[in-house]
Every structure is written in structure tokens, then in C-alpha cells.
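Whiteboard transcription, Tuesday session. T.W. wrote the C-alpha cells on the left side:
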């Protein structure tokens, strides 16, 4: 039977409280990265079309959609939502395809938050 003298780093040496639960490292919870979906202003896409896009693909009511459309119109761009990578990618593709089919130059992009 092998024995060694107790050391300071022993969690339980019989000379004090067991600190093993207090010093155990926490497993950090990993959150998936989020992506902002941005709508860009242009001079040609009709305001009503942009409002429709925001209602249709981002689940906004008419007043919310109108507000965001006006923000894009005045400031040049706005964040229209924050999503996982896959959802953001799908929204961008849906908006770009819908705009292209209607021959409007509306641009929608995503960027990591
Ligand atoms: N600027 C456009 C106009 O005056 C309207 C518009 C708003 C276009 C938002 C794009 O993302 C946009 N008809």
C-alpha cells in the first residue's frame, strides 16, 4: 500500500471543508451566433412593395412594417430582424428572389451580430 503526505492541493485532506464543489469549473453554455438581416434603401423600389415584403417575410404588422420601411428610406438601411445563420440566410434569399421576380432592385443582406 502506497501513501504520500497530504498536500495543499488535496481537495479533502480531513483538515477543512471539502471545497471540491466550490472549485469545480463550470461547463460554459455555448450560444449559437446570431445574424442581423439588413434591408438597404434604393431610389426605385416602391414603398408599398417594401412594406409588403416586411409583412410577408418578417411577420410584422402593417404599422411596424411601415415604420421600418421609412427608417430604411431615411437612413439608408435598417436591421429588420436577428436570426440564426440558417434562418437569416433563408430570409435574405426569399426577399432577394421576391424582389427579382418583381423586377425591383431591393437589396437584403445579413451580417454577424
Ligand atoms: N426609397 C424608396 C422610394 O422612395 C423606398 C424604399 C424604402 C426602397 C426601403 C427600398 O429598402 C427600401 N420609393
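and on the right, the sequence the group agreed on:
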Amino acid at each position: 500500500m502506497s501513501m504520500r503526505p497530504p498536500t495543499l492541493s488535496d481537495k479533502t485532506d480531513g483538515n477543512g471543508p471539502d471545497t471540491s464543489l466550490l472549485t469545480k469549473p463550470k461547463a460554459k453554455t455555448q450560444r449559437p451566433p446570431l445574424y442581423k438581416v439588413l434591408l438597404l434603401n434604393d431610389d426605385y423600389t416602391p414603398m408599398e412593395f417594401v412594406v409588403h415584403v416586411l409583412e410577408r417575410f418578417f411577420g410584422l404588422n402593417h404599422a411596424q412594417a411601415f415604420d421600418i420601411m421609412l427608417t430604411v428610406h431615411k437612413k439608408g438601411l435598417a436591421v429588420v430582424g436577428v436570426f440564426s445563420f440558417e434562418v437569416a440566410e433563408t430570409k435574405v434569399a426569399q426577399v432577394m428572389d421576391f424582389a427579382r421576380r418583381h423586377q425591383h432592385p431591393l437589396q437584403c443582406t445579413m451580417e454577424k451580430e
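Someone added at the bottom: The CA atoms of residues 103 and 111 lie 25 Å apart.
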